[in-house]
Design goal:
Strand order of the largest sheet of chain A: 1-2-6-3-7-8-11-12
Number of helices of chain A: 14
Oligomer: heterodimer
Order of helices and strands of chain A: HEEEEEHEHEHEHHHHHHEEEHHEHH
Largest sheet of chain B: none
CATH superfamily of chain A: Alpha/Beta hydrolase fold, catalytic domain
Number of helices of chain B: 9
Helix content of chain A: 40-55%
Radius of gyration of chain A: 23 Å
CATH topology of chain A: Rossmann fold
Number of strands of chain B: 0
Distance between the termini of chain B: 140 Å
CATH architecture of chain A: 3-Layer(aba) Sandwich
Helix content of chain B: over 70%
Structural class of chain A: alpha/beta
CATH class of chain A: Alpha Beta
Strand content of chain A: 15-25%
Distance between the termini of chain A: 81 Å
Largest sheet of chain A: 8 strands, mixed
Strand content of chain B: under 5%
Shape of chain A: globular
Number of domains of chain A: 1
Largest interface: A-B, 39 and 37 residues
Number of strands of chain A: 12
Structural class of chain B: mainly alpha
Chain lengths: ~350, ~300
């Protein structure tokens, strides 16, 4: 007897097996979901040492002897929260930096309200960031500090370093968009067709929920379907559920973006691409990338669909220092901070690089 | 008995007698109004109370009317008027009827135009083009009613309401188009996977588990979305949807402002003006503080 092309009996038995497995998993999942879960994020202790309006400067309490002379200021983006760098024990860039003996400070941009809608990039860079840099210079009695920027925070850091090179010892940029003239990422294509004036004039601040929805639309198949299918497949695993919920907590914790900052970011950067051409003006001053004369370490992800390699890699060719290095990791936009592989490559590399340039 | 005799004892005669009786009735009512005055009811200045005066004048008017109607000639003319009533009604109703038929004709012509616009699009694109057709239809045939100029004291408010309704309709259609566009890859990927499975079945290489089928579908779906998201159709629909949403929010905000201004609550415009002032003041203060600090440093630094 020849084998049938469609082995119905095998298909049915496989289906029955799947159903049985799903049933067992659901029973275990009920136990997991109903018991207490540890889903706390950003649990590394810190204190707020400086505050201005909604913005705070967090100082993480050292866990090892100080081995660096220069403090490190980390500037996160205005989109989502800086808590991603301290997602959970074992997946925390903050932990690695502290164990290496760094004096670590991080900007908490807070949650903008309607009164913040008029804040521009100048207010963030030459206002809040400069005040915090001055505070740290005074506190540690150092002429310069180390600056690390993430995503839009990296863009702000690049602008700051170009405008105030005398205050920055070393610059680290991670998944930082500096060149917006690329079709590698969907955001770069979509932003070109957005009437940002109309959006900002009608919304004021850009709602975090709309930003979230936009990011989900970048890959709805994976981010809206497959992610939750994966959850259903592993929801009987307590560790998996805890990690998943932590990530969900972070990813949907989206503050609004101040309207005028958003307007300028889209117009001058996404649409006119002024930064990489050194034609951007902030606070009436030209942002010359050649004025970035301190060492630069530039990380980006090969599979980053938000800030593709094409948006990051040009920076090191435009700065005014020979000590500029690109590192492309085989990871995505968030994986660079939270994947276990990157934990061994990313943060330790930064520690080593800064140590070599600490004197 | 001839016709006149018939009329003499017919409805006219009855009506005449009725009118005479009602005239006598109202006469007696007038007399009742002149009953001994109640000192408590009398007005303070000695004249009759207003209620009594009103009653008396009404009763007099009714008596005069009844007396008029009681005259033989009046009844005849009334009867002639009633006879001509159907003719008068027809004359009144005819223009309204003609107007209604005219409107109906116009609606049928519009419906005919709908058919013309959809016929212009190809059948296979009818799903997507249906949105374009509806948007065109709305803009050409219905929008004009919302743009009719308003009159009177409240005209500005009414215009803003119409504008908000207009913006809402446009937002609804563009959003529907956008959502249907997002659904297209799902539809197409299901078709592709079905064809793939059919061809695999022919080769005898069916996926072994449902997970394999799911993975296959997800990969196809992802690919379709990537193609869609880079297409000019998507970027233009996305742009239109965002614009329509922004316009609707602005129009809605206007209405809320109009309502809130009647309450002792600051409106968003009021708050925005305040926020701007505060922002500028704070910026100025910070600049001055920085300048002051720089000046102090210069003064303190020995030469």
């Amino acid at each position: 007897m020849t084998q049938p092309k469609i082995p119905v009996d095998l298909l049915l038995s496989a289906l029955a097996e799947d159903v049985e497995k799903a049933h067992t998993r659901a029973q275990k999942a009920a136990d997991v979901l109903l018991e207490p879960l540890n889903t706390e994020i950003a649990s590394t202790p810190y204190e707020v040492v400086y505050a201005e309006d909604r913005v705070k400067l967090k100082h993480y309490k050292p866990v090892a002897d100080a081995r660096f002379k220069t403090p490190l200021l980390v500037v996160y983006a205005l989109i989502n929260r800086e808590t991603m760098l301290d997602l959970q024990p074992g997946r925390s860039v903050v932990e690695i930096f502290l164990k290496a003996g760094m004096e670590l400070y991080m900007v908490d941009w807070g949650y903008p309200t309607r009164k913040d809608r008029y804040l521009t990039i100048d207010d963030h860079v030459n206002g809040y960031m400069d005040n915090m840099v001055e505070f740290l210079r005074e506190k540690h009695n150092v002429p310069k500090i180390n600056l690390m920027g993430i995503c839009m925070g990296g863009t702000f850091s690049v602008i700051y370093a170009a405008l105030h090179p005398n205050k920055i010892k070393n610059l680290i940029t991670t998944v930082t968009p500096t060149n917006f003239d690329t079709d590698q990422g969907l955001l770069h294509i979509w932003m070109r067709y957005t009437d940002v004036d109309r959006v900002v004039d009608s919304f004021g601040n850009i709602p975090g929920d709309i930003m979230n929805f936009g990011f989900l639309l970048l890959n709805p198949a994976r981010l809206m379907i497959d992610k939750y299918v994966g959850f259903l497949e592993h929801m009987d695993n307590k560790d998996f559920v805890e990690n998943f919920v932590r990530m969900e907590k972070w990813i949907f914790d989206s503050p609004d973006v101040p309207g005028e900052t958003f307007r300028q970011f889209v117009k001058d950067l996404y649409q006119k691409n002024l930064l990489i051409k050194s034609e951007l003006e902030i606070g009436g001053k030209r942002v010359e990338l050649k004025h970035i004369t301190m060492p630069v370490l530039n990380f980006y992800g090969h599979f980053d669909h938000l800030v593709p390699p094409g948006a990051c890699e040009l920076l090191t060719t435009k700065v005014g220092t020979a000590d500029a290095e690109n590192i492309c990791l085989d990871t995505g936009h968030i994986g660079i901070y939270v994947s276990s592989k990157s934990q061994k490559e990313f943060a330790p590399k930064i520690v080593k690089w800064l140590k070599q340039r600490d004197d | 008995m001839n016709e006149k005799q018939h009329e003499a004892i017919g409805p006219q005669a009855l009506l005449q007698a009725w009118m005479k009786a009602s005239s006598e009735f109202f006469d007696s009512m007038t007399q009742a109004g002149k009953a001994p005055e109640n000192p408590q009811v009398k007005a303070s200045n000695g004249s009759k109370p207003r209620v009594v005066e009103t009653w008396e004048s009404t009763a007099k008017a009714m008596k005069a009317y009844s007396a008029l109607m009681a005259e033989p000639g009046a009844m005849e003319s009334l009867a002639k008027g009633i006879d001509s009533l159907p003719e008068v009604m027809i004359k009144l109703i005819q223009p309204a009827w003609n107007g209604f038929f005219h409107l109906q004709l116009e609606w049928m012509r519009r419906a005919g135009r709908i058919g013309e616009t959809t016929a212009a699009y190809k059948f296979e694109n009818l799903d997507q083009d249906a949105f374009k057709a509806f948007t065109d239809l709305y803009e050409k045939e219905f929008r004009q009613f919302l743009n009719i100029p308003r009159l009177g004291l409240m005209r500005a408010y009414q215009e803003r309401m119409s504008q908000a309704a207009d913006r809402f309709n446009i937002f609804q259609t563009t959003m529907a188009e956008f959502v249907s566009l997002l659904y297209l890859p799902v539809e197409k990927s299901v078709k592709v996977v079905q064809e793939k499975i059919a061809s695999l079945a022919d080769e005898g290489k069916l996926p072994e588990t449902s997970k394999d089928v799911y993975n296959l579908w997800l990969k196809v779906l992802e690919g379709h979305y990537m193609t869609l998201f880079k297409s000019p159709e998507y970027t233009s629909t996305l742009g239109k949807t965002i614009d329509a949403l922004s316009e609707f929010i602005t129009a809605r905000q206007q209405i809320l402002q109009d309502i809130l201004q009647f309450f002792p609550i600051p409106t968003q415009t009021d708050m925005d003006e305040l926020y701007k002032e505060i922002y500028l003041l704070k910026k100025r203060v910070k600049q001055l503080e920085k300048q002051d600090k720089m000046n102090k440093l210069r003064t303190d630094t020995p030469n």
